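Lab notebook, bench 4. The sequencing result for the construct came back, and we need a structural model before the next group meeting so we can plan mutations. Quick request posted to the team channel:

Model the 3D structure of this chain.
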Amino acid sequence: SSIPMPVAMWDFKHCDPKRCSGVKLSRCNMLKTLKTSQRFRGIVASPVGEKAVSPADRRIVELYGAGVVDCSWARIDEVPFSKIRGPTDRLLPYLVATNPVNYGKPWKLNCAEALAAIFYITGYPEHGEALLAKFKWGHAFKKVNGGLLSRYAKCKDSAEVVQVQNDYLKQLEEDSERKEENT
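Done. Here's the predicted structure in token form:
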């Protein structure tokens, strides 16, 4: 891999391996698949995180890398989070998926997009781009989310990332209301 820090995934095999971005990244030697019992000290994109990933996590990513829990939101209760949960689990802020399965859907990122988001937000955009370059649609992620990723990357900590996200969502809501009033 061209990425000098560990990139990892716990794969709970909830999705079609032919369409799974994590499986493809593993085949391309861009990430390591972990067993449920294996610990990972890097930042992990996980639905059980209590804080949003932020630039404050940069040093952890630099030293220990980035990881993701590959599971389906529809089967989240089947994932043994108690066995893989760690102090570096993080939530991802609002971003829009550009993968073919969930294109245009907010919060529905696949593994490659989630890992890329961690790298972009923590100041390693080149690593995010290296991961996304393995996919035909990969360029679209930055095109669609570039403005938000840039704003998140300028934040100080998780609280600021959440504030930027909430301000953005409020603006989207206001824009939508204005459009409805004008029709």
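The chain has a mean pLDDT of 91.
Will bring this to the meeting.
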